[in-house]
Known about the structure:
Blueprint: E1 16-20, H1 24-30, H2 35-56, E2 60-67, H3 75-98, E3 101-106, H4 114-126, E4 133-141, H5 143-159, H6 170-174, E5 187-190, E6 209-212, H7 222-233, H8 243-247
Parallel strand pairs: 1-2, 1-5, 2-4, 3-4, 5-6
Helix pairs in contact: 1-2, 2-3, 3-4
This protein binds 3-methylbut-3-enyl trihydrogen diphosphate (2 copies) and magnesium ion.
Residues 20-22, 64-67, 70, 194, 196, 198 line the site of one 3-methylbut-3-enyl trihydrogen diphosphate (IPE).
Amino acid sequence: MSDLPEELNINKIPQHVAVIMDGNGRWAKQRGQNRLEGHAMGVDSVRTTLKAAREIGVSFLTLYAFSTENWSRPKEEVDGLMDLLVQSIANEMDELNENGVKLAAIGDIDGLPEKCAESLKKAIVETSSNKEITLILALNYSAKWELTEAIKQIASDVQEDKISSSQITDTLVSSYLTTKEFPDPELLIRTSGEHRVSNFLLWQIAYTEFYFTDVHWPDFRREHFIQAVLDYQQRERRFGKVSEQIIQGE
Ligand code: IPE
Ligand code: IPE
Ligand code: MG
């Protein structure tokens, strides 16, 4: 922890940080490279960000790796991304275990190509007893898919008398989401200059602080992550109250 900036308040570290990793394609284009080379370089940023998050004591790191909408990309890119996923999981397994990283996934995992789903599920089992940090990969994920699935399940449980409609509260809704085991993120980072949510965690980000940076994902490093957390620590989270109430700790 030696070279962390003095301003970083170790008592105010977000428990859960979510990241929309964007800009791999633009990063590659700027260098006259193939988009897949941008994605491959993005894996280094995942490694660096995970390490930084663990170093400062973040407990959950969610990374948006592939959206439901990303299936519409050219087949070559989709296939390349799926191969990269399988390869990266295989390469990183030892390090995940050495560093106490528990892997989790949100999204329609069974809708991924079989070899991706299998290697992901295997890695989740093999890291399940790790306790330092949980790395949550959002794969074949979209918030509207997740909410639709939750609504269908709630409707079916009401119909089968497992719950009554009067029991539907926001806590109950949360318990039907793929993120049910995780707290909502306090901080959401999006790289590469886009200011949109792109169907990510709509329910869970109701009170999340957003941080946008122009840095493309393959260039995103420890200092950028720390900067995002520093920026977050300057925010006053009011949750509907007025500033004076927050200062008085009401
Ligand atoms: C993010 O980078 C990675 C994925 C969505 C899989 P992009 O591939 O979206 O990069 P840009 O936005 O085209 O630069
Ligand atoms: C969002 O990035 C999805 C991921 C980071 C996996 P996109 O690059 O797909 O988002 P849009 O389409 O530009 O909004
Ligand atoms: Mg993009």
